[in-house]
């Protein structure tokens, strides 16, 4: 197969949860630029509608539907809508995240709320969308974790800032998601469903200058990720170019943890 065909997502229906967020929007853009038909799903209808308009203005095929990942009925409604509108699902990018816990000392009810979406809800939507992919003949599940699921926090990055202590639930759920990826790759054996994970480092978002100084000097590439850096990785895992990659976690951090 020609290399351009291998990376093409033409006629692929792709769901990206959290697709209006920081990394989500980057991935949606890349998947649509590779000719995929992309659906953004999120709780915030105003955000996804605004994102869809942005992509439509660029001539990209992107659609939107609301979903509350903590609500089973909402997930089922999204699943039925995808079948009614598109008749199939080929790729699921599992990217939605809730961040009610702000730091180590946050109330435990915030941790419980986080788990409702980031653990129970995430497993729920993974099962439902994977079953839809199986019904469609197979495809790809791409979990979006973080380098924070692989390593402890480097607190020196926050020296001289008022950014506080990174919240523990973020490390907890991303570490679990990385190993859940391996578990699902085994569970889906024989179903033509590949399951992989991307663990990005920090994305530049005009963070405090002191934080950027602390961070940049530790990265061999001398910068944080930009909006294009994750595009190639997610298209690889969604397309036939990644057809023999399964059960992997790809660290994308510019060499920070090399």
Please specify the SSE layout and strand pairing:
Blueprint: H1 3-7, E1 13-17, H2 22-33, E2 37-42, H3 45-57, E3 62-66, H4 72-86, E4 91-94, H5 108-135, E5 139-144, H6 168-187, E6 193-200, H7 209-216, H8 231-238, E7 249-252
Parallel strand pairs: 1-2, 1-4, 2-3, 4-5, 5-6, 6-7
Helix pairs in contact: 2-8, 4-5, 5-6
Describe what this molecule looks like in 3D:
The chain has a single domain, classed as NAD(P)-binding Rossmann-like Domain (Rossmann fold, 3-Layer(aba) Sandwich), CATH 3.40.50.720. The protein is built from eight helices and seven strands. The model has no long low-confidence stretch (mean pLDDT 96). It is of the alpha/beta class. Helix content is 42%, strand content 15%.
């Amino acid at each position: 197969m020609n290399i351009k065909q291998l990376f093409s997502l033409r006629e692929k229906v792709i769901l990206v949860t959290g697709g209006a967020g920081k990394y989500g929007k980057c991935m949606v853009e890349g998947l649509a630029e590779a000719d995929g038909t992309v659906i953004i799903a999120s709780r915030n209808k105003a955000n996804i509608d605004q994102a869809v308009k942005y992509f439509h203005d660029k001539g990209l095929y992107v659609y939107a539907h609301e979903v509350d990942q903590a609500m089973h009925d909402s997930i089922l409604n999204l699943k039925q809508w995808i079948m009614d509108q598109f008749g199939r699902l080929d790729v699921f990018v599992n990217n939605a995240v809730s961040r009610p816990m702000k730091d180590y000392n946050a109330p435990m009810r915030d941790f419980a709320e986080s788990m409702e979406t980031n653990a129970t809800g995430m497993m729920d939507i993974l099962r439902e969308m994977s079953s839809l992919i199986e019904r469609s003949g197979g495809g790809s599940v791409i979990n979006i974790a973080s380098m924070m699921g692989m390593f402890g926090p480097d607190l020196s990055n926050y020296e001289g800032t008022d950014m506080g202590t990174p919240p523990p639930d973020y490390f907890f759920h991303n570490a679990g998601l990385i190993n859940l990826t391996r578990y699902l790759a085994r569970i889906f054996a024989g179903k033509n469903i590949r399951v992989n994970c991307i663990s990005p480092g920090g994305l530049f978002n005009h963070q405090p200058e002191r934080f950027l100084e602390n961070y940049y000097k530790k990265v061999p590439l001398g910068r944080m990720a930009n909006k294009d850096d994750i595009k190639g990785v997610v298209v690889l895992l969604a397309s036939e170019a990644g057809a023999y990659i399964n059960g992997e976690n790809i660290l994308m951090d510019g060499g920070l943890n090399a």
